[in-house]
Amino acid sequence: MFKRKKNDDDLEFVALDGYESESVKKKEKNRTFETVLVTYFFVFLMLLVMGNLVLFVTKDSESVINNSYNTRQEILANKNIRGKILSRDGDILAQTGRNEEGKEIRYYPYGEIFSHVVGYPVKGKSGIELSENINLLTSHDSVLVKIQNEVGSLKNYGDNVHTTLDVDLQKVAYEALGAYRGAIVVTDPNTGEILAMASKPGFDPNSIGEMWDSLVADKESGVLVNRATQGLYPPGSTFKMITSLEYYREHDGNVSDYHFNCGGSFTYQGDRINCYHKSSHGSVDFKRSFEKSCNSSFANIGVSEDADKLADTCKDLLFNKDLPYDGLYKKSSFVLTSGDSSYDVMQTSIGQGKTQITPLHLNMITCAIANKGTLQKPYLVSKIANYSGVTVKNCAPNKTIRLMSEDESAFLTDIMTGVVEKGTASKLSGQSYTAAGKTGSAEYNGDKSDSHAWFTGFAPATDPQVCVTVIVEGAGSGGDYAVPIAKRVFDAYFK
Amino acid sequence: MALVISDLSKYIIAVIGIIYTCECFAVFRYGNEDDRGGIYMRQIIWMFLVHFIGFAAICLETGDVSYIFFYGFQQIMMFATITLYHVLYPEANRLIINNMCFLLSVGFIILTRLNYDKAVRQFKIVAISLLVGLFVPFFVKKLRFLKHLTWIYGIVGIVALAVVYIFSTVTYGSKISYSVFGYTFQPSEFVKIVFVFFVAGMLTISKDFFQIVMTSVAAAIHVIILVLSRDLGSALIFFVTYVVMVFIATHNYLYLFLGNAAGAVAAMVAYKLFSHVRVRVLAWRDPFSYIDSSGYQISQSLFAIGTGGWFGMGLCQGDPKAIPFVEEDFVFSAIAEEMGVIFALCLILICVSCFMMFMNISMRIKEEFYRYIAVGLSILYIFQIFLTIGGGTRFIPLTGVTLPLVSYGGSSVLTTIIMFSIIQGLFGIQSIEGKKRVQKKEE
Known about the structure:
The complex is a heterodimer of chains A (495) and B (443).
Chain A (H helix, E strand, L loop, with lengths): L10 H9 L2 H44 L6 H8 E2 L3 E2 L5 E7 L5 E4 L7 H4 L8 H5 L1 H5 L5 H9 L4 E2 L2 E4 L3 H10 L5 E6 L6 E7 L7 H10 L9 H4 L9 H11 L8 E4 L2 E4 L2 E4 L7 E4 H6 L3 H10 L2 H10 L25 H8 L9 H12 L3 E3 L4 E5 L5 E4 L5 E3 L3 H17 L13 E8 L7 E9 L6 E7 L5 H17 L1
Parallel strand pairs in A: 1-5, 2-6
Antiparallel strand pairs in A: 2-3, 3-4, 6-14, 7-8, 7-19, 9-12, 10-11, 13-16, 14-15, 17-18, 18-19
Chain B lengths: L1 H25 L10 H26 L4 H22 L5 H21 L1 H27 L7 H18 L1 E3 L2 E7 L2 E3 L1 H19 L3 H20 L3 H19 L2 H21 L1 H11 L10 H13 L22 H9 L1 H24 L3 H25 L17 H33 L1
Antiparallel strand pairs in B: 1-2, 2-3
């Protein structure tokens, strides 16, 4: 028999005695409920820790470990021979061999042509040599081969990096810049593949070790900077694409009512904006203003626009934001607000002012126009394969970002086609392909008339296959200096 | 050739780790300890295999066979512990013994690889601790007056912490240890147990509001001294353990809420007041921006885990020594780097299975005082694991506490072994109670 005590603790004693009633059982459950709750809570907490760890290993770890502070890279380098970097057609862009003394050396068959985009694996590393460092140093060779190497005390072959780069286009792009400093980005707007990325002045990565000190000492020319991704320039008249997009948005797609009479300059509240070389464009509608790149007309358009909405449009186009790009790059900046003076507004709407953009970013915007308003994330590495060619991992990001609506991209394509046919980029007209684009002449020296020559565009206009962005530093007008360079790239692509 | 074998060893270790872990949870399918015998036997075999393969890989990789002797001593010690426990306390919970030995042997593997001298020191301390631990269950069962020393526990705890705060040497910004005869003690480790006894005693006396306030004040003094000593990890562990114990004892959700609210406020104040708290939060949010300074440790820890990947680099093939204080605070990252993330995940689950068994035991204990002790020790254990592994994997900011039984640190390992032994004692009390009941029932 049992005596029921008042003490809560003796309930279990009662319960296990075999005389338990339903209510006693219930109380027993009540007593342990909080304990069970606490147990589950801490188990759940530990599952979160585990989930976070799994997430880190599957997702983030790859970019994290590719860091120069990670000393484990040297351990891998002692075990494996650095893999090759290959073009889209399998041409070798970088490979490791041995010199006469049997020492490992990195060899770049194309010398300075691929200097920035492929980069170098020493002195802090750059380019693909930096971003793919871990992959190049990791070996996914078959276990059998590895065992053979082990027995023979040989190193394993690191994995090869297959890029999207096209040797012919890269050569043409690099050579087309001639003696000028500048950059060219060539992409496929449908896939985001970067076909060529040139930056001048270049350097010969084969002798980076010997040249390093003089390259670093030369602050003025910035040889080591990849101007395509890290060069920030005023967009010049190429920004009129964005001013136009904003006008189109504010007028619900109706731009046919717009008219302006250009006398070579535009004065608003005492401030004056001149057309390029003060040339007068006469009576122009919206399309004509764009084709002729009429500064006066666009200053007039600019002061009619809502600066805050323009800032929103720029935000849509990835200004002041991280770009969808895996390598090193600089963020573009757009700082105009509704509080700024009308002079700043006019300057900004024609691409002068404080706005800054990289060639890569301008290429992204152009790609979105070419691809019905959506940007395919640009990428350089298509896949990683082991030494024998078996794919280890596909790297095509297949990431789509919408920058504008399809209607808006059609509108911009239309006026950009006009630029090539009847406007500032007419040096591109009359080809086997129909291009669309926008020129720019970005003044960078304040009052002086020195300007960077810009062109960004794509072809064919009706079914875009390739997108080309060119900047030529200090050359002059975009129509005279950037367009012929773009033409050589288009010609090479469509030959 | 050695490399091939040690390369293979990491896969074998991962597989055995998974099997062992599954057995840990298979145990919970049986309510009765007698039905679990087969599982426990298999676990011992798997444990010894991991231990053997680990040391074999180290010997092959370093080419130094002398490690074999060290391994031999450890093996004898493990075997003796398991056997002696079985003989002296046939009713002891064998999952807890197995897991304790498993975690110790993983600790020996990784410590030997990281720092042989420290591993040998650790071995000596573990040997003494295990010996001490063997008597603990006996005392827990016999010395029933322990439950009447409540205020003595409180005073001892506070005095011990205060003495350290006032007289201790400052090591790496924290005043947490002092040296006697060349051995460095970290009293906050031992005070953990005393603290749990204190809180359990207070809650057994009464659960009315006044009693809770008094207990809270005493607990707060513990925590504040720890915060002043800059031992934030221990402060957090004490705090969380206290809140959970009060909640479980009182069944009162209001106390849980108040505890959490007080914790949140205290965290905010600490963040505003102490620069070292802010530094750690910053380093947690963006370690790579502070990689030269405060983010260095966590960055290196992430490099280690990430480079190791699922199966690890293999023992002696990574670079875990690049992580500062790897033997103490980042042993988990070193294990993940060289033995693989899969094995590291198994390790977490093994710790979780210990915790579940502890809580399971606590639920069956009839006497309040002992039940609260079991709960308190369980929370101490699991929350410390949460802090160290969560910190090393950048789930939460770093607090710099050890991974119980695995990390290097005499105070930590001795305390944990005593904790495990106390729970064995409580398990013994519970099963004696159970048997009495059964006998009574049969009458």
